[in-house]
């Protein structure tokens, strides 16, 4: 890898260019250059790489399957929305060398965030960035360049004092341990040291009892506090001598505060912690709209990557728009538009690989077997309005090869594990299916307009073609087989809450446009909440959102709508809220609704919280203390340093919607101090999401985004906490963080 390898970089079936790829000496950076010109084209860091896939695991490589064997092909997948890199090696051996080497390097990057600020890996990374002449030493001019790179606008005299203090050899340069000393001086956390000394009698260490006092008084840990204190010392104290004496040094204290245990997010809620034995309609379900699109709705690219990315983010409800394709093969794309097409067979194959793949919660966990409104082990199963949902799991298949129809549609979420539910129109009634009959024509009326109803009529033909009467019998049989798979999510038109209460069943679901949902929220908020306590509702974006923008999901969650479909490919506040809500409960894609939203006789109305006899408002007090190593704004000028401010937003019922922000700190993105207190009153905290946003202040134009973190109020841990920031794409940007103090009072 370090000698350079000639490989084909592939963008399409016809675009295959030979490039030299080489791993740099830092074992962190890979660059590639043109074979023809010798010019370096691009470079990327190992920290940018999420995973490496072997074989034909992209549309481009699948299209070249006959030309190049899978043993020579692999795909480098980057974090966020950066496009994948498809490569073809000269031999299977070369491909394996790169695949295994990259995987080892990716694994080596996965050290705990707890040690990020003192890690030699981070220090080495900064040193290599600033060592311009690559001589292994750093003079003061290079140190000044480093400070600009690290987002610090430091007084030159102060920087020189730090430099000279670290230059123990008095050589005028820093090398090895000298640079480590300089880096640690830069990252000294005065606000943390002050807090440490408030609880330390000698100012040098926290005894076990002193640490217990801190955990009880400030962190509000009230169960097993002594055991927790011992565990934290064993886990985060770097000194072996201090661990043996059961004391915590200032370094260990900082490492604890930067750890998952010191995070604002309650670690107990990262894993599966909610009751999973309730009916499906009692959960919010992570849901995507037009999952196959990774760009806009008119000319954008359709890709199986859309399904993979959505599933990796915990999405449990997928959409597949299936249409007639060449040679009778169905294809997936946004009908009546210029979006590209992908074979339906590839979509099903992809879902088969990723639908129930298990990942690690802290890395954006994948589903742990919870039901998918999507497909695995599906043959010719797709939905009349595009939402793929069938019944998976070979154990549930009958002897005729078709999915066996369950005997009860009111099954709990726990009982639906490892199933794929098909949402769609149905021929006849559910009872007829269970009795083995059902030749009634499906109701094709639609809840919005005739054009969409006509589109659903075409889709329900299940890839029907114009090839004559010879296929008519097969088509009808297939349609009946598809109908028989619809058990839990029978699509029905919405004709009012009274009509639904009188004639609908819990196994049925209605789809509403965002505009129609908003009208119902305004006109009949309480009825909407009651309806969603016993039946599923799906909300989808307006057809006018051709740019794949999103509506606010919060207002739909406020009335208990379960399937709130968003364009996952579009970053922004709306997807931050979605990721924030579903980052809990093991990232399984299901979050239990509050108890008052599961009661069919509830009085709750989000527009009038006073009409509901809740526990009363609570006060959330947030002291924004400091920030650490905030990233630069994308495409900023060389030497530019940000002027950061922090905004805290509350997203919830209308009475709770609020935002407040700190002042901006001029020219300091490395260790800004705000020490400002923001306070909010929440009437329905059970539905509230809290979003922390860092922006670069600009007095002449709109502020630039720096980072954010969003979580449900229910997942907040009080006390002194770090907030580890995420990028616009929702990926982590270590070691960037905020340090805050949280208090919750009634």
From TrEMBL:
Biased composition regions of type Acidic residues, renumbered to the chain:
433-454
Entry keyword Disulfide bond = no
Membrane topology for this entry?
Answer: Peripheral membrane protein
The top EC class, named as a word, is hydrolase
Query: Which residue intervals define the domain C2 in the entry?
Result: 598-727
Q: Which PROSITE patterns match?
A: C2, EF_HAND_1, EF_HAND_2, PH_DOMAIN, PIPLC_X_DOMAIN, PIPLC_Y_DOMAIN
Q: Which reaction does it catalyse?
A: a 1,2-diacyl-sn-glycero-3-phospho-(1D-myo-inositol-4,5-bisphosphate) + H2O = 1D-myo-inositol 1,4,5-trisphosphate + a 1,2-diacyl-sn-glycerol + H(+); a 1,2-diacyl-sn-glycero-3-phospho-(1D-myo-inositol) + H2O = 1D-myo-inositol 1-phosphate + a 1,2-diacyl-sn-glycerol + H(+)
Q: What GO biological process terms are annotated to this protein in UniProt?
A: intracellular signal transduction; lipid catabolic process
Start and end residues of each PI-PLC Y-box domain: 482-598
- Keywords from the UniProt entry: Calcium, Cytoplasm, Endoplasmic reticulum, Hydrolase, Lipid degradation, Lipid metabolism, Membrane, Metal-binding, Nucleus, Repeat, Transducer
SUPFAM superfamilies in the record? C2 domain (Calcium/lipid-binding domain, CaLB), EF-hand, PH domain-like, PLC-like phosphodiesterases
Give the required cofactors. Ca(2+)
Choose one Gene Ontology CC annotation of this protein and give it. plasma membrane
Domain annotation PH: ranges: 1-107
Disordered: annotated segments:
389-412, 431-471
Task: Tell me which Pfam families the record gives.
Answer: C2, EF-hand_5, EF-hand_like, PH, PI-PLC-X, PI-PLC-Y
Q: Which molecular function terms from Gene Ontology are attached?
A: calcium ion binding; phosphatidylinositol-4,5-bisphosphate phospholipase C activity
Q: Which parts of the sequence belong to the EF-hand domain?
A: 118-153, 154-189
Q: List where in the cell it is found.
A: Cytoplasm; Endoplasmic reticulum; Membrane; Nucleus
Q: Which InterPro entries match?
A: C2_dom (IPR000008), C2_domain_sf (IPR035892), EF-hand-dom_pair (IPR011992), EF_Hand_1_Ca_BS (IPR018247), EF_hand_dom (IPR002048), PH-like_dom_sf (IPR011993), PH_domain (IPR001849), PI-PLC_fam (IPR001192)
User: Per the UniProt record, which EC number(s) apply here?
Assistant: 3.1.4.11
Residue ranges, compositional bias (Basic and acidic residues): 392-403
Q: What is this protein called?
A: Phosphoinositide phospholipase C
Native species: Bucorvus abyssinicus
Lineage, top ranks? Eukaryota, Metazoa, Chordata, Craniata, Vertebrata
């Amino acid at each position: 890898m370090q000698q350079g390898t000639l490989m084909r970089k592939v963008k399409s079936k016809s675009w295959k260019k030979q490039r030299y790829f080489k791993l740099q000496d830092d074992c962190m950076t890979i660059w590639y250059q043109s074979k023809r010109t010798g010019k370096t084209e691009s470079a990327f860091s190992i920290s940018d790489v999420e995973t490496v896939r072997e074989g034909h695991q992209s549309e481009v490589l699948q299209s070249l399957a006959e030309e190049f064997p899978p043993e020579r092909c692999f795909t480098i997948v980057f974090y966020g929305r950066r496009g994948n890199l498809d490569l073809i090696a000269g031999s299977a051996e070369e491909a394996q060398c790169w695949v295994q080497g990259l995987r080892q390097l990716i694994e080596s990057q996965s050290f705990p965030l707890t040690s990020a600020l003192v890690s030699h890996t981070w220090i080495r990374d900064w040193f290599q960035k600033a060592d311009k002449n690559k001589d292994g030493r750093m003079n003061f001019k290079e140190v000044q360049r480093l400070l600009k790179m690290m987002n610090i606008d430091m007084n030159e005299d102060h920087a020189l004092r730090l430099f000279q203090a670290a230059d123990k050899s008095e050589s005028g340069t820093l090398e090895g341990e000298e640079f480590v000393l300089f880096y640690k001086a830069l990252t000294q956390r005065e606000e943390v040291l002050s807090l440490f000394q408030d609880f330390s009698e000698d100012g040098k260490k926290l005894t076990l009892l002193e640490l217990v006092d801190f955990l009880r008084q400030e962190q509000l840990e009230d169960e097993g506090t002594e055991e927790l204190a011992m565990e934290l010392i064993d886990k985060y104290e770097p000194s072996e001598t201090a661990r043996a004496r059961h004391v915590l040094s200032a370094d260990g204290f900082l490492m604890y505060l930067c750890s998952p245990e010191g995070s604002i997010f309650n670690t107990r809620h990262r894993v599966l912690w909610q009751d999973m034995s309730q009916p499906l309609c009692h959960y919010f379900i992570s849901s995507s709209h037009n999952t196959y699109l990774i760009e806009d709705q008119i000319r954008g690219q359709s890709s199986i990557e859309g399904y993979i990315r959505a599933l990796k983010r915990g999405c449990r409800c997928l959409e597949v728009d299936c249409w007639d394709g060449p040679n009778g093969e169905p294809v997936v794309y946004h009908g009546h538009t210029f979006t590209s097409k992908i074979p339906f067979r590839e979509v099903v194959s992809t879902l088969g690989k990723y639908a129930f793949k298990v990942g690690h919660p802290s890395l954006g966990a994948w589903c742990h077997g919870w039901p998918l409104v999507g497909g695995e082990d599906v043959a010719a199963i797709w939905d009349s309005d595009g939402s793929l949902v069938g019944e998976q799991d070979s154990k549930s298949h009958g002897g005729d090869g078709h999915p066996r129809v369950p005997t009860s549609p009111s099954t709990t979420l726990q009982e639906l594990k490892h199933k794929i539910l098909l949402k769609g129109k149905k021929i006849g009634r559910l009872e007829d299916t269970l009795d083995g009959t059902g030749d009634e024509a499906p109701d094709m009326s639609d809840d919005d307009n005739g054009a969409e109803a006509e589109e659903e009529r075409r889709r329900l033909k299940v890839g029907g073609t114009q090839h004559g009467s010879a296929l008519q019998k097969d088509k009808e049989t297939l349609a009946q087989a598809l109908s028989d798979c619809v058990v839990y999510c029978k699509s029905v038109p919405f004709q009012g809450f009274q009509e639904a209460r009188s004639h609908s069943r819990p196994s049925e679901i209605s789809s509403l446009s965002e505009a129609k949902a908003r009208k119902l929220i305004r006109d009949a908020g309480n009825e909407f909440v009651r309806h969603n306590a016993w039946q599923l509702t799906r909300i989808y974006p307006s057809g006018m959102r051709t740019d794949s923008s999103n509506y606010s999901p919060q207002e739909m969650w406020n009335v208990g709508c379960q399937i709130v479909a968003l364009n996952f490919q579009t970053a922004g506040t709306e997807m931050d809220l979605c990721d924030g809500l579903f980052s809990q409960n093991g990232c399984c894609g299901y979050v239990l609704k509050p108890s008052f939203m599961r009661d069919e006789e509830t009085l709750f109305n989000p527009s009038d919280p006073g009409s509901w006899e809740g526990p009363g408002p609570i006060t959330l007090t947030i002291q924004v203390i400091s920030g650490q190593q905030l990233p630069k704004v994308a495409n900023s000028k060389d030497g530019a340093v940000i002027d950061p401010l922090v905004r805290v937003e509350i997203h919830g019922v209308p009475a709770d919607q609020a935002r407040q922000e700190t002042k901006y700190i001029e020219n300091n993105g490395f260790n800004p101090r705000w020490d400002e207190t923001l306070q909010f009153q929440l009437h329905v905290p059970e539905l509230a999401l809290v979003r922390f946003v860092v922006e670069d202040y600009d007095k002449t134009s709109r502020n630039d985004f720096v980072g954010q973190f969003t979580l449900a109020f229910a997942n907040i841990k009080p006390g002194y906490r770090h907030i580890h920031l995420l990028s616009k794409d929702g990926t982590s940007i270590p070691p960037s963080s905020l340090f805050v103090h949280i208090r919750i009072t009634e």
